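Ops channel
N.P.: pipeline sanity check, posting one input/output pair.
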């Protein structure tokens, strides 16, 4: 789409894995509230700040966006440059391209409050804030900054004037906070619903759901895994081989737990905990050809969670595990008493 240099344009990037009503709510609200002429939706090839989970190809996500946003085509366009380029997608690269056409006062980058909290960790974030203004939309369970001290640390030196809704920066750009009529929808939850066969009518449009079914995306992972007790033992063995501490597995069927099986282990450090979880993800992909429904906590390594539907794998930094004592919650389950099936030979 050719852009008019005088138009007010919002860039809205993301994985859109899948496109859901939360995304549509952002686009509609920001377009109206901020009086934007155009919202450009840009699916990322691979978000460098997110671990890889199962899902559609970049091309399928582009087509999903076209179908799901067709009724807003008067002011929404889809830009597939990041998908075509491949590799990690960084906002600064795309904003630089748009800045060749649009002056900074007319260019807006739309981000969620959850992303904004880590904005000073983004690549070349200071340059981003010279090329474009930020629109920060509310997210459930996240609170907008009350004062300058609540802003990301790297942004604080750039603040010229602070208001709860509007922040003026020394770069000449601004940050505006937009409160949405929050829809508590996350892509992780939508993927899980799709892959466990639950209803998604409230989470996505019929056009998107039809496309997903037509393409066979987000297939139910149960048949691919089969016997979940055997699967739990497989994951436990991966952890044993990577020197995990105190590996335990539980059959929670018949209890009030949110999953049928759980596996818990510890690492000797946050880095070890993250490495253990990544080893499980890699081994499961090779053996069963599935990615987890979600993969959380890997960047901190204190409590890393891999969700495989009927099995949830918890890998803790051992010190943190003592705080949560999850095993006490699983006392009514059956301890599978997993053992290392390939122990290292004892040293003479």
């Amino acid at each position: 789409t050719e852009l008019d240099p005088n138009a007010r344009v919002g860039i809205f990037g993301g994985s859109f894995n899948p496109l859901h009503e939360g995304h549509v709510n952002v686009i509609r609200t920001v377009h109206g509230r901020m009086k934007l002429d155009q919202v450009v939706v840009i699916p990322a090839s691979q978000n460098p700040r997110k671990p890889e989970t199962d899902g559609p190809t970049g091309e399928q996500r582009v087509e999903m966006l076209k179908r799901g946003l067709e009724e807003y085509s008067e002011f929404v366009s889809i830009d597939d440059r990041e998908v075509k380029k491949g590799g990690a997608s960084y906002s600064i690269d795309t904003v630089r391209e748009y800045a060749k056409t649009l002056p900074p006062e007319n260019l807006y980058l739309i981000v969620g409050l959850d992303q904004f909290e880590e904005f000073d960790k983004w690549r070349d974030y200071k340059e981003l804030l010279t090329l474009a203004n930020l629109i920060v939309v509310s997210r459930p369970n996240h609170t907008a900054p009350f004062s300058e001290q609540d802003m990301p640390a790297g942004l604080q030196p750039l603040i010229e004037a602070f208001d709860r809704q509007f922040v003026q920066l020394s770069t000449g750009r601004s940050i505006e906070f937009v409160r949405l009529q929050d829809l508590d929808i996350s892509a992780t939850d939508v993927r899980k619903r799709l892959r466990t066969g639950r209803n998604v009518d409230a989470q996505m449009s019929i056009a998107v759901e039809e496309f997903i079914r037509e393409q066979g995306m987000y297939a139910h992972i149960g048949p691919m895994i089969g016997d979940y007790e055997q699967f739990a033992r497989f994951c436990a063995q991966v952890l044993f081989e990577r020197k995990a501490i105190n590996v335990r597995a539980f059959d929670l069927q018949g209890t009030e737990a949110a999953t049928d099986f759980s596996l818990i282990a510890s690492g000797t450090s946050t880095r070890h905990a993250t490495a253990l979880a990544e080893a499980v993800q890699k081994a499961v992909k090779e053996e069963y050809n599935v990615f987890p429904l979600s993969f959380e906590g890997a960047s901190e390594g204190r409590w890393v969670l891999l969700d495989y539907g009927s099995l949830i794998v918890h890998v803790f930094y051992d010190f943190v595990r003592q705080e949560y004592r999850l095993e006490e919650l699983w006392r009514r389950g059956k301890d599978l008493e997993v053992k290392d099936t390939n122990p290292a030979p004892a040293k003479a």
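N.P.: looks fine end to end. The first strand starts at residue 9 and ends at 14.
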